[in-house]
Structure formats: C-alpha cells, structure tokens
Amino acid sequence: MIKAVIFDFGHTIMDELHHSDVPLRSRPVRLMPGVLEALPRIPVTRGIWANTKRAREAGIRHWLKRAGIAGHFDFVVTSVDARCRKPDPRFFDFALARCGLDKEQVLFVGNQLNTDIKGAIQYGIQNVWLSGMEYRSSDDTLDPGDVTPTHTIARLEALPALLDKLNLNWTPLH
Model-level pTM greater than 0.85? Predict the structure, then answer.
C-alpha cells in the first residue's frame, strides 16, 4: 500500500537550469511546471530524494522554504547525506531507512531515466517518469527504450489524475 509519494528534486520540483550560475542558496526560485497544481492534490505524505553534489538536507529545506512549498514535504534525503547517488541501491537503502518506509510503500517520481527511474526499478520501487521535454536533463544518458518505468506522464499536473486512476488505497502516515 502506498504511503508516500517521493519526488526527485532537480528538474522535477526545481528548475535547476534557470540561473544555474548562481549558488542554490541564493538562486531565484523557479519551480517546474505543475508543481503548485499537483502537490496539494496528493493525499499522502510527500518527500524529496535528491541527487545533490554539495547540498545536504538543510540546504534543500532552505530552498523549499524560499519557494513557499516546504510544508508539502515531510522527508528530504540527499545523496550527500547518503554518501552515494542514485541509482546506487545504497542510496535507496539510506532514503527508506531515513523515512521509515518500506519500498512497497513508496511511489517515486523523477525526470531522469539513468538515475531516478533506473534506480527505482532496480530497487523494486514503483515509479513515475516525467517524460515531457521541459523536465529533461542534459546528463540523462539513457534512451527511453533502455528502461521501462512503472508509469509515464508528460507533465507533473497529470500526477493526481494518475493516482486517481490507479485507485490506490492511500494510507497517510500522519
């Protein structure tokens, strides 16, 4: 039973390419399309599992606060804190333990096939790939034919409808 929807951070929640020359802590806030529409319509706990190079949990939480969406996320896990990056299974071990979740309780939403989706698939976590061009990252090295996501949506606004279609028996953690 799904108890949490977990999102990648860069180019899933935050537009990481906009003002990429400015450090994250002072970068102007620019959310990805559909974030503000989708978040309030997700009936379970939400979290962030971010593949960061330098940012720790506090840095991501600071950015979420600046963006005005911090209240939507109960969990924040970064690869810096985990000391490994997606798709490494140790990242998912760390993230699940930090969140107090089992892999069967998570639906993971990400934009990169080579890290987010590949890692979730290999770990046995249900996943949603954001396939729209505005969510693409230049460092995504896989072709869509190389992995098979559990679900695919073109835009984040479609996530609540997908969740309704799945007719999952949601169990909030709160």
Answer: yes
